[in-house]
Design goal:
The complex is a heterodimer of chains A (314) and B (247).
Chain A: E1 4-15, E2 18-29, E3 33-37, H1 44-51, E4 59-64, E5 67-68, H2 73-79, E6 80-83, H3 95-105, H4 110-123, H5 139-151, E7 157-161, H6 169-184, E8 188-193, H7 196-202, E9 205-210, E10 213-218, H8 220-226, E11 231-235, H9 239-248, E12 253-255, E13 260-264, H10 269-281, E14 288-292, H11 296-304
Parallel strand pairs in A: 3-8, 3-9, 6-7, 7-8
Antiparallel strand pairs in A: 1-2, 1-4, 4-5, 9-10, 11-13, 11-14, 12-13
Chain B: H1 4-18, H2 20-41, H3 51-66, H4 68-80, H5 83-89, H6 94-122, H7 131-158, H8 162-168, H9 170-174, H10 192-198, H11 201-213, H12 218-246
Classes of the chains: A alpha/beta (314), B mainly alpha (247).
Chain lengths: 314, 247
């Protein structure tokens, strides 16, 4: 096997005359996190469905774990795990039974199955609720159970399709930590998300998908350099202070009407402190300040020239 | 217990036991109908002999029909949720999911039939069937259950929503009322009578009735087996096609 876990060239998919994937090229290194970033309708789920053999592509080729998705489907399936956008758990089974179902379907054998199930319950902090029906689980617990079910077979490549969509911030953190542990264990992760910060936190490489095309690819740092928009805003009590601030801070843009001064910044604590120190040094009084980080909208505006408004058809 | 089909069957059986609505429809409702028709209304029907002896074969058919909406809804809800995609990516054999539904439907129906027959005996049901004829009853009924199970699964797969899946089995549930289940077809009005005589459930009911009375009717039995075989083939082919398309 090469060191590429997933490669794709020119993947295309259309539903009737609606083109969903318009020539996708990918190269995901083994043991890394690759994030496909894009708004709803960009084609993220379709990409995952094609790579995980759920959908046939209309053109192009892809290899997953070294196997051709079109001709070596079973070998691809044996190597991957998928956790989709909607938690694929059986609501009328308990957490433990859901995991056991997966273990049985992978033909693990009774002793090994029991071991794997209990280990996963423990690891995902689900042991206490293992005997409850999955229908009583919260959204975060379902996602955890879903991911645990995917891990029963210890797949070498895991596809996570918007794993934190709709989760509260705390469950999101938990999910992130689990993903980091998986990568530390050598698993390759293919992650789709519509949150820039999620890709930023987790991914080694990020590809930005827009209307079925990859519009940018690189590390988080490389992408951010291409994105303006990170800035600090200072609001002043009066025009005099605003002018003083504008003189002190190089590269700033004052807005006389709202008494706001906009200064480009990476938003880091150190650079913000430098700005505040400088204002302090010149005795300029700041009423309040806010830090604005580029979000997906800024990325899209910068990379595509249009906003990341939802594309209706999928 | 290791083949994919057996694993899926176990899953479906757990679902059945945990779904009170399905159990109610499958077991309690037919028993209630039995009480209603035999105790409350039975005296008003004159069918020649004891009404419970006449009605039991019809109640058997109603019992088979009544549980079907639960199967259609179970299939539909499977398809609506991500779990089917998970099975698909895991390379679970395509037939296993459907086989699990068919077998669990048949088992649930057999349990319901046992309950209804038990109640029938309590109400004075006294069949004249020999052991051989009882075996024939079981054979005809199993084939019929097998057939309508596949048809129901196809209906469940074809339905776009859970509600329409439940609704899609209503014709199957209504069909026994327009058959010889409750009163003989020749006592019905014109139009309905012809429909009752030629619809598939009537020969199934009549052949079971013949076996239980100790007077088997070859014509009805052949018609019952042919209808069941036909429905089974159509249901199976349709279900497989829908499943492969949707999954």
């Amino acid at each position: 096997m090469t060191s590429s876990a997933i490669t794709a060239s020119g993947l295309r998919k259309a539903y009737r005359d609606k083109v969903v994937l318009d020539g996708i090229d990918l190269d995901v290194r083994a043991g890394t996190v690759f994030s496909l970033l894009g708004p709803n309708g960009a084609g993220k789920t379709t990409t995952v469905n094609v790579l995980t053999t759920l959908l046939d592509s209309d053109g192009g080729a892809a290899r997953v774990a070294g196997y051709d998705i079109a001709t070596e489907t079973r070998k691809v399936r044996a190597a991957i795990g998928v956790t989709g956008q909607f938690a694929a758990v059986d609501e009328l089974l308990t957490g433990r039974e859901n995991l056991r179902l997966m273990a049985d379907l992978h033909h693990l054998g009774s002793t090994a199955a029991k071991q794997v199930v209990e280990d996963l319950l423990e690891r995902f902090d689900l042991a206490e609720s293992a005997a409850r029906l999955a229908s009583t689980y919260s959204g975060g617990m379902r996602r955890k159970l879903d991911l645990a079910m995917t891990l029963v077979s210890t797949p070498e490549i895991i596809f996570l399709d918007e794993p934190t969509a709709g989760l509260d911030p705390r469950s999101r953190r938990t999910m992130w930590n689990i993903i980091r542990e998986l990568v530390a264990g050598g698993t390759t992760i293919f992650l789709t998300t519509q949150y820039l910060d999620e890709a930023d936190q987790l991914a080694d490489r990020i590809a930005v998908l827009d209307r079925g095309r990859l519009v940018a690819e690189g590390t988080s740092g490389e992408l951010k350099k291409r994105i303006p928009g990170g800035h600090v805003r200072f609001r002043f009590a009066d025009a005099e202070q605003l002018d003083a601030g504008a003189r002190v801070l190089a590269g700033s843009t004052p807005d006389a009407e709202s008494l706001v001064l906009r200064v480009p910044s990476d938003g880091g604590a150190r650079s913000v402190r430098t700005l505040l120190d400088r204002l302090d040094e010149y005795a300029v009084d700041v009423e309040e300040f806010t830090v604005h980080m580029p979000d997906l909208d800024d990325v899209f505006l910068a990379l595509t020239g249009h906003a990341s408004t939802e594309v209706t058809a999928r | 217990m290791n083949t994919d089909s057996e694993i899926m069957l176990r899953r479906n059986l757990k679902h059945t036991v945990r779904n009170p609505v399905a159990l109610f429809n499958a077991i309690l409702m037919p028993v209630l109908m039995m009480f209603m028709f035999v105790y409350m209304l039975g005296g008003a029907f004159s069918v020649g002999d004891a009404y419970v002896d006449y009605a039991t074969p019809g109640m058997i058919m109603m019992t088979i029909s009544y549980g079907l909406s639960a199967t259609a809804m179970a299939v539909s809800s499977d398809m609506a949720k991500g779990i089917i995609n998970r099975f698909k990516v895991m390379d679970v054999s395509r037939g296993a999911v459907l086989t699990g539904h068919v077998v669990s439907t048949m088992l649930r129906t057999v349990v319901a039939l046992a309950a209804v027959l038990g109640v029938a005996f309590l109400m004075g049901f006294s069949p004249n069937a020999t052991f051989g004829l009882w075996l024939a009853v079981i054979g005809v009924l199993l084939l019929a259950i097998f057939a309508v199970s596949w048809l129901t699964i196809a209906l469940g797969l074809a339905a776009k929503t859970l509600e329409s899946a439940g609704f899609s089995t209503v014709p199957l549930i209504m069909l026994p009322f327009f058959s010889s289940a409750i009163v003989p077809a020749d006592k019905m009005g014109p139009g309905v009578r012809e429909f009752a005589e030629y619809q598939p459930f009537t020969p199934i009911i009549e052949s079971v009735r013949g076996f239980l009375n100790g007077t088997p009717s070859n014509g009805h039995t052949i018609a019952a087996v042919s209808w069941s075989a036909g429905i089974a083939v159509v249901g199976y082919v349709w279900a497989r096609a829908r499943f492969n398309k949707r999954a």
